[in-house]
Write a structure and sequence with these properties.
By secondary structure, the protein is of the alpha/beta class. It is 32% helix and 27% strand. The chain has 7 helices and 10 strands. The longest helix is centred in the last third of the chain and has 15 residues, at 174-188.
Length: 225
């Protein structure tokens, strides 16, 4: 499903600082239906790797393929490819002037989904993450863990085949972190490919994931599930 061949990503110099290589010649593949965890120190390249898989960033070297498509050469096809990818960002990117329901519905509005079917999908997604009773509230009324669950609902409302989560348990207490891991596992169990970047391996060990370790932008080790 995901193939990286000698992938590098260099960010140019800016505001007096020199450029740096976030990733260096990374080659790996992640199969359909896998649960993979990308780990490593801060600055190891975890978030950059997920952005490359999602097509948010373009590699400066090598190739990234998702379902056989090389994303850097398929820019016109990228919006359609992204409909098959659910993204959970570390900084939430929620719209605080809209309701919980509206936040989840937004991806369906963008793709022109029929309103009645969209509403059904939104409520199904909110029910999945335990927020159905909060649909008319604003995100600011939710706790940090609930906001993360809202992000998951928004990411899966279009029923993606690939779910990418960037540090989904960061800054959460143990109970909330376990809730998030359990939700991710539930999607993996029904066949969704899940790739998580994290420095918190403890919370994810119960999922028995494949562990991909990065160090200084390079592939350091891989542990099978």
């Amino acid at each position: 499903m995901i193939e990286l061949d000698r992938v590098g990503k260099r960010y140019p110099a800016s505001q007096g600082s020199g450029g740096h290589d976030a990733l260096k010649s990374v080659t790996l593949s992640i199969g359909t239906g896998e649960f993979a965890v990308v780990t490593g120190h801060s600055g190891a390249g975890k978030s950059t790797l997920l952005k490359l898989i999602a097509g948010i960033e373009i590699p400066t070297a090598g190739t990234v393929r998702v379902d056989g498509q090389e994303l850097a050469r398929s820019r016109r096809a990228l919006p359609f490819m992204r409909r098959r990818i659910g993204l959970i960002f570390q900084d939430h990117k929620l719209l605080y002037d809209r309701t919980v329901f509206d936040n989840v519905q937004l991806p369906l509005d963008i793709t022109g989904f029929p309103p009645r079917e969209a509403a059904k999908r939104v409520r199904a997604a909110l029910d999945k993450v335990g927020l159905l009773s909060r649909e008319r509230e604003r995100p600011v009324t939710l706790s940090g863990g609930e906001q993360q669950r809202l992000c998951i609902a928004r990411a899966i409302v279009h029923r993606p085949s690939l779910l990418l989560a960037d540090e989904p348990t960061a800054n959460l207490d143990i109970d909330y972190a376990q809730d998030i891991v359990d939700i991710l596992r539930s999607f993996h169990q029904v066949g969704v490919t899940v790739v998580v970047s994290t420095h918190d391996l403890v919370s994810l060990r119960a999922a028995r994931p494949r562990v991909i370790a990065l160090a200084q932008g390079m592939l350091a080790s891989e542990t099978p599930p």
